[in-house]
Design goal:
- The chain has 19 helices and eleven strands.
- It is elongated, with a radius of gyration of 25 Å.
- Helices cover 43% and strands 12% of the residues.
- Helix 17 links the parallel strand 8 and strand 9.
- Helix 1 crosses helix 2 and helix 7 crosses helix 8.
- It has two domains: 257 residues, Rossmann fold; 158 residues, Glutaredoxin (3-Layer(aba) Sandwich), CATH 3.40.30.10.
- By secondary structure, the chain is α/β, with parallel strands linked by helices.
- The longest helix has 28 residues.
- InterPro entries: AB_hydrolase_fold, Glutathione_peroxidase, GPX_AS, GPX_CS, Thioredoxin-like_sf, Thioredoxin_domain.
Length: 443
């Protein structure tokens, strides 16, 4: 419960720590439940480790930073029935009123996200200050109407002993500053660049929406990220601390969710049994030569045609900020090493990152020809999720990324040696020209 010894312990890292803990405890598969920070950490767990997390239950189901969220929200201001059910309209609109409440209630967030140690030192020094800081949230976030009461209606929903138990956890462990640093790490440029809310989560997901939760989003928004979002339970009571306030309601819902997750996986197994086609050929593959792909014209290409060549395999997009530099430098590498060293570059268009490769095969061909692309171009594919091309599943399992297997963005690059084995993985922000020293190891 003490502070981290070095900066960088954000929601992604906590997710990895918890996953490693589960492995050490001997649990290779498990369910995850979370609210507040538990939602973000649990969501990261489900996104990073989809074969280990069997189901994700959240009591704060939100997608915070997907670019389509404000678009859908504004659209709903004019056509609410197309966005949210009529009986839930008041949880989302009028937007001005909801925004005003959010601004009023997030002063703590701005302080903790920018100066966690400053407020942390003050609260660590004063048990009364710590109690006031924490218990005020138990009033307003349980029901906004409570803030008008002189005593905050704290004992309306909670026992005083239980409230003080909560405060004492922070006081006795001296961990209030630790809890606040998570805000700073989450809102750092380093974390935000991962764009986790734009990475699809295929793990079956279930949300419970309490009436006075701090934020509300309709299922149409949640499904932008959670591709197997199965159900939302609507509760006409409760607030942010639902597990504390309505533990029976929460517990019953979690068990219902787990039963549904079990049914989901059983149905998937049944479908797999009825369809004997191997859904995971990447797990049996040894080299990239075990795969057949389609080129940009729709023709089958067996990758064993590249035997004896060093390869760069890359996912590309036409409308990305990285497009110009990457296409220019990939062309330069091809010109320099295609004949002299046998380098081959295999480019796979992908539209999974903000829709930045929306065109048809013909559109992509026109775009690349206009830029003088000489290397091999293939059919548009998915590189993440259940629909990812088997070749890309193989590349990811062979060369895992820093925070998980999934491809983070356009222009992720894999170097494959002359034996067809993926040997290097480079992030999207690594320019092709920087690959020359690495390629030299495999000529």
């Amino acid at each position: 419960m003490r502070g981290a010894v070095r900066p960088g312990l954000g929601p992604l890292e906590v997710a990895v720590v918890l996953r490693n803990l589960m492995q050490r405890l001997g649990h290779s598969q498990y369910y995850v439940q979370g609210g507040d920070w538990g939602h973000f950490i649990g969501s990261n767990l489900a996104t990073l480790f989809p074969t280990e997390v069997l189901g994700f239950h959240t009591n704060m189901p939100i997608v915070a930073s997907h670019p389509l969220v404000p678009v859908v929200t504004i659209f709903g201001m004019f056509f609410p029935s197309l966005v949210v059910e009529p009986e839930l309209h008041s949880r989302m609109y009028p937007w001005g009123q909801k925004l005003a409440f959010t601004v009023e209630e997030t002063g703590y967030l701005h302080e903790q996200a920018t100066k966690p140690d400053t407020v942390g030192v003050a609260l660590t020094d004063s048990p009364a200050g710590l109690a006031a800081y924490i218990l005020e949230k138990f009033s307003t976030w349980t029901n906004p109407a409570f803030k008008k009461a002189g005593d905050g209606e704290l004992l309306n929903k909670f026992a005083l002993t239980h409230l003080l138990d909560n405060v004492m956890i922070y006081w006795a462990t001296n961990s209030i500053t630790t809890s606040m640093r998570l805000y700073a790490e989450h809102f750092s440029k380093r974390y935000m660049e991962h764009k986790m809310d734009q990475v699809h989560t295929t793990v079956p997901t279930w949300g419970i929406k309490f009436k006075h939760e701090l934020g509300f989003q309709p299922d149409c928004i949640l499904k932008l990220k959670y591709k197997n979002y199965l159900h939302s339970t609507i509760v006409e009571d409760g607030g942010h601390f639902a597990a504390f306030e309505l533990p029976d309601v929460m517990a019953d819902d979690i068990f219902k969710a787990v039963n549904t997750f079990i049914e989901f996986h059983e149905q998937k197994k049944k479908e797999a049994a009825e369809n004997p086609i191997d859904p995971e050929p990447h797990k049996k593959a040894i080299t990239v030569y075990d795969f057949t792909v389609k080129d940009i014209n729709g023709n089958d290409v067996k990758l064993d045609k590249y035997k004896g060549h060093v390869l760069i395999i890359v996912n590309v997009a036409s409308q990305c900020g990285l497009t110009s530099t990457n296409y220019q430098e990939l062309n330069a590498l091809y010109d320099k090493y295609a004949k002299s060293r046998g380098l081959r570059i295999l480019a796979f268009p992908c539209n999974q990152f903000l829709g930045q490769e929306p065109g048809t095969a013909k559109d992509i061909l026109t775009f690349t020809k206009d830029r003088g692309v000489k290397f091999d171009l293939f059919e548009k594919v998915d590189v993440n999720g259940d629909t990812a091309h088997p070749l890309w599943k193989f590349l990811k399992q062979t060369q895992s990324g820093t925070f998980g297997d999934f491809i983070k963005w356009n222009f992720s690059k894999f170097i494959v040696d002359k034996n067809g084995v993926p040997v290097e993985r480079l992030a999207p922000n690594v320019n092709p020209s920087e690959l020359e020293p690495l390629l030299a190891k495999y000529w």
